[in-house]
Amino acid sequence: MQRLNVALIGQGFMGRAHSNAWGQVAKFFKVPVRPVMHTVFGQETENPQAFAENWGWQHASTDWRSVVNSPEIDLVDLATPNFMHAEPALAAIAAGKPCVTEKPIAATLDEARTMAEAAKKAGVKTFVWFNYRRCPAVALAHRLVGEGKLGDIRHVRATYLQDWADESIPLAWRFEKQWAGSGAHGDLNAHLVDMTRFVTGQEITEVAGAIAETFIKKRKRMTAAADEGDVTVDDTVLFLARFAGGAVASFEAARQATGNQNACGFEINGTKGTLKFNFERMNELQYYDATLPRAVQGWTTIMCTHGADHPYVGNWWPDAHLIGYEHGFVNEAYDICRVLAGEPPVVPIPDFADAYQTQRVLEAALVSAAERRPVAIDEIK
Ligand SMILES: NC(=O)c1ccc[n+]([C@@H]2O[C@H](COP(=O)([O-])OP(=O)(O)OC[C@H]3O[C@@H](n4cnc5c(N)ncnc54)[C@H](O)[C@@H]3O)[C@@H](O)[C@H]2O)c1
Fold first, then answer.
1. Which of 14, 40, 84, 115 is the best mutation target for the ligand 1 pocket, counting ligand atoms within 8 Å of the beta carbon and taking the most?
2. Superfamily of domain 3-131
3. pLDDT category, 224, cuts 50, 70, 90?
4. Are strands 375-376 and 204-213 parallel, antiparallel or unpaired?
């Protein structure tokens, strides 16, 4: 079987999630190409050699440029902070190599456009780790909407609520615009915009009424001195939107929504039914079938663990044995292997061009918040 030498750039939270995915995928899925965990890049202070040994990478490096350009590498996987997606991605594309990056695709819209255009020009395959698309419940929602189960979609309500960012959290890269681009917005709304575009199969055409707020304006720097620095990104961004098919929508991303730990979800109301998802109960999809006789209408909790009927899960455990966060990444690694082998993914996988559309919506919300006006997505290039 053809081998695929993977290079992973970054060894933090996502570096661990991706390492797990590349290590698991061929064990659970019949992959058309076999990923080889070739080289991991980390900064010198992180001890990449120890990371490589722990996770099963064959080599470790502290020089990402030589890794990306090595003739031994077939796929470049980026798990670095947002400001460090564009440069290595463009280097991979220039070397003619497929590239998968974490979300948001980039820290700025300009970088995202440049990446999408470069990939198109070079004819290189690209991917983005929008892992929530690959939760079986979300993939099922996509399929049910495609089958017309909801009828005409009228409302999309999407929230991604977390509560980890209190005053005790130091000034990590996530709180500075130069590294992150934005705060909860690029971190969490990026997932919501991607997920709702995916489930509805529709584009967002306009954004209005956006509000951005930073509640904690200074945080302790992550240096020995531990003096305070300015937070230059949002803690929360809310906005309204319109979808091409006529639905109206609301989005909310928050890092201080006390009591919500990783509540990433949506409710989509159509003329024939409703679907509801919350990642905190990720194996379940809530369905309300409004075509049933009124006497028996009510909420159905679908446990999305039936291998014969639900996307991806047939490759995991016997029916009704739950899966978790990490499985979305393994499912995505499988689809990347499929696409690289010329096969269709189980459900559509976003490339740089697709993620650029998500980034345009995020940018429109920032413009709407700054200028206090509705913004058509067509305005955002
Ligand atoms: N898909 C998801 O669910 C999800 C979840 C969390 C984070 N993310 C995304 O993943 C990316 C990485 O986030 P994370 O949480 O893994 O971050 P992290 O801080 O845990 O890890 C970042 C890695 O990048 C390296 N790095 C940082 N600055 C660098 C520099 N200047 N030069 C070279 N290397 C550098 C760090 O050493 C570390 O190995 C971000 O784009 C983030 O938005 C996605």
1. 14
2. NAD(P)-binding Rossmann-like Domain (3.40.50.720)
3. confident
4. antiparallel
> In this predicted structure, what is the pLDDT of residue 284?
98
Residues 149 and 338: their CA atoms lie apart, in Å, by 28
Domain boundaries along the sequence of the chain:
3-131, 132-321+347-371
Strand partners, 237: 212, 253
Q: Is the CB of 43 under 6 A from ligand 1?
A: yes
Q: How far is the CA of 87 from the centre of ligand 1 (A)?
A: 14
Cα 14 to ligand 1 centroid, rounded to whole Å:
6
Instruction: Report phi then psi at 375, rounded to 5.
Output: -130, 120
CATH superfamily of 132-321+347-371: Dihydrodipicolinate Reductase; domain 2 (3.30.360.10)
The pLDDT of residue 193: 99
Q: Is the CB of 103 under 6 A from ligand 1?
A: yes
Which DSSP helix (H) or strand (E) runs through 275? strand 273-278
Tell me if the pTM is above 0.90. yes
Q: Tell me how far apart the alpha carbons of residues 308 and 370 are, in angstroms, rounded to a whole number.
A: 48
* Per-chain mean pLDDT for the chain: 98
Contacts of 4 (CB under 8 A, 6+ apart): 33, 34, 35, 36, 74, 75, 337, 340
Q: Hey, what amino acid is at 355?
A: A
Q: Residue 304 in contact with residue 292, Cβ under 8 Å?
A: no
Asked if residue 350 has its Cβ within 6 Å of ligand 1, the reply is no
For the Cβ of 42 lying below 6 angstroms from any atom of ligand 1, the answer is: yes
Return the best residue to mutate from 64, 80, 128, 188 for the ligand 1 pocket (most ligand atoms within 8 A of CB).
Answer: 80
Count, residues in the chain: 381
Taking CA atoms only, the protein residue closest to ligand 1 atom 33 is 43
